[in-house]
Design brief:
This protein folds into 3 domains: 7-92, Rossmann fold, CATH 3.40.50; 100-315, Mur-like, catalytic domain (UDP-N-acetylmuramoyl-L-alanine:D-glutamate ligase, 3-Layer(aba) Sandwich); 325-459, Mur ligase, C-terminal domain (Protein-Tyrosine Phosphatase, Chain A, Alpha-Beta Complex), CATH 3.90.190. Helix 6 (124-135) packs across helix 10. It has helices spanning 15-26, 43-48, 63-68, 83-90, 98-109, 124-135, 171-174, 201-209, 228-233, 287-302, 307-315, 344-351, 376-382, 393-400, 412-422, 444-459; strands at residues 7-11, 30-35, 54-58, 71-74, 94-97, 115-119, 142-146, 164-168, 184-187, 220-224, 240-245, 253-258, 264-269, 274-278, 325-330, 333-337, 359-363, 383-389, 405-410, 428-431. The strands form 3 sheets. A 9-stranded mixed beta sheet has the order 7-8-6-9-10-11-12-13-14, with helices on one face. The protein contains 16 helices and 20 strands. The protein is an alpha/beta fold and 461 residues long.
């Protein structure tokens, strides 16, 4: 992959784009970087790239930049149907994702570190984090990043060699891969998400399936046995297929076996063996976390890691910030921050974790195009009060408003106040929005912090 002297265009200047600029500049490419944001909003970018030979074209994209480039590297936030990209593709320009660039550079470097890549509508961040913890150990250097934290290309910004690379990969990142080949690819689930970006659900599923497009029979697929869309997506994958299931036994992969007395054990099977381990008590509750454990455990056993040690590390996992996070209990009422639940599938997993008629649900935000009605039965069964906020209020009310008591609150502070006033001992006040946060907040983290702050006004009175 000769880059010296070639003109490379970087589209999008968030953290991923900045890392790509640094990498390409160090390789001697003539770098042009473009973003729709004006220069005044990118001061951090200028500081981080100071001294690098890069030309910035900001406040919009110039067609000539795409036409004159030898290589175009697209950041995850940039849609495939961007007119300039469509035209460049028609002209035969090479367009790749950052993870593709990183993979090519790692291969060229001669890296033998296995890549474990995780995708899915929900659970991928938790599984990536768990894998990073399990793969780490004395004397082992493990890179953990991708769609969370550090872009994969940052693994190339030093001369450091890693023993393993664990990456979370989004559908956006997979759109422009042409050779990216993880040793182990994990697909957690595929439920409606990002339909504000994709023309159809099948397009979204196609992007997820790109994770396996370049695997060979020497590689491994780990898939959710209970998700029919997942099963259809991996049908033509060439990697060796392993499955995980919380609800049934699988012939190849991992499942949980219930024992008399309420105890449980984790079973891993393949053609040659069956390994059985006691399931230790898990700090994080819920069916969704057990599925995360099984996916992680399956990957660990494919790589022949010690099973008991892997389960012990997962048992002590405290969970992710803003993901089904029980942050307070007050007067018998639980307050749960699930602000990271930005699609309907995530809300489904959250509601499954609580008893019937126990949840006061705060939902809403910027709609992403999904069908809220798919979990209507669960909302009817588990939710005693629905409090709606943000731009999606009317759409969610049309889907769920007649299933339980529903109030249109407008803002999150107003919703928290109403929730606390209505709650009784044994109830759960759950922020699980089913939407992105960008109508009222800069990200889901800020939304979660506002929820906690507002709840704290009552908890500490």
């Amino acid at each position: 992959m000769e880059l010296k002297g070639k003109q490379a265009l970087v589209v999008g200047l968030a953290r991923t784009g900045v890392a790509v600029v640094k990498f390409l500049g160090a390789r001697g490419a003539r770098v042009v970087a473009t973003d729709t944001k004006p220069a005044g909003e990118l001061e951090t970018v200028f500081r981080e790239t100071a001294g690098l030979p890069v030309a910035f074209h900001l406040g919009g994209h110039r067609r000539e930049d795409f036409r004159e480039s030898d290589l175009i590297v697209v950041s995850p936030g940039v849609p495939m149907d961007l007119p300039e990209l469509v035209a460049a593709r028609g002209e035969g320009k090479e367009i790749i994702a950052e993870i593709e660039l990183a993979y090519r550079a790692l291969t060229e470097r001669g890296s033998r570190a296995p890549i474990l890549a995780v995708t899915g509508a929900n659970g991928k961040t938790t599984v990536t984090t768990l894998l990073g913890q399990i793969m780490s150990g004395p004397g082992r250097k493990v890179f953990v990043g991708g769609n969370i934290g550090k872009p994969l290309i940052e693994a190339l910004l030093t001369e450091e060699d890693f023993d393993c690379l664990v990456v979370e990969v989004s559908s956006f990142q997979l759109e422009w891969v042409t050779s990216f080949r993880p040793r182990v690819g994990i697909l957690m689930n595929i439920t409606e998400d990002h339909l504000d970006r994709y023309a159809s659900f099948s397009d979204y599923a196609w992007a997820k399936g790109r994770l396996f497009a370049f695997q060979t029979p020497e590689d491994f697929v780990v898939a959710n046995r209970e998700d029919p869309v997942v099963l259809q997506t991996i049908e033509k994958a060439r990697g060796q297929k392993y499955f995980f299931s919380y609800h049934r036994e699988v012939e190849r992969g991992s499942f949980i076996r219930k024992l008399p007395g309420g105890k449980e054990e984790v079973v891993f099977r393949d053609e040659k063996r069956e390994k059985v381990f006691p399931l230790p008590p898990l700090t994080v509750a819920g069916v969704h976390f057990r599925e995360n454990v099984l996916a992680t455990f399956t990957a660990s056993q494919i790589l022949d890691l010690p099973g008991e040690a892997a389960l012990a590390r997962m048992a002590g996992f405290q969970g992710l910030h803003h993901r089904m996070e029980l942050f307070a209990t007050w007067r018998g009422i639980q307050f749960v921050d699930d602000s990271k639940a930005t699609n309907v599938g995530a809300v489904e997993r959250a509601l499954q974790s609580y008893p019937s008629r126990s949840v006061i649900l705060i939902a809403g935000g910027k709609d992403k195009g999904g069908d809220y009605r798919v979990i209507s039965d669960l909302v009817r069964e588990r939710v005693i009060l629905l409090l709606l906020i943000g731009e999606a209020t009317e759409k969610i009310a049309a889907a769920w408003g007649n299933l339980t008591e529903c109030r249109k609150m407008g803002t999150l502070p107003e919703a928290v106040q109403a929730a606390v006033a209505a709650a009784r001992p044994g109830n759960v006040i759950l922020l699980s929005p089913a939407c992105s946060s960008f109508d009222q907040f800069k990200n889901y983290e800020e939304r979660g912090e506002v929820f906690r702050r507002e709840a704290g006004k009552f908890i500490h009175d």
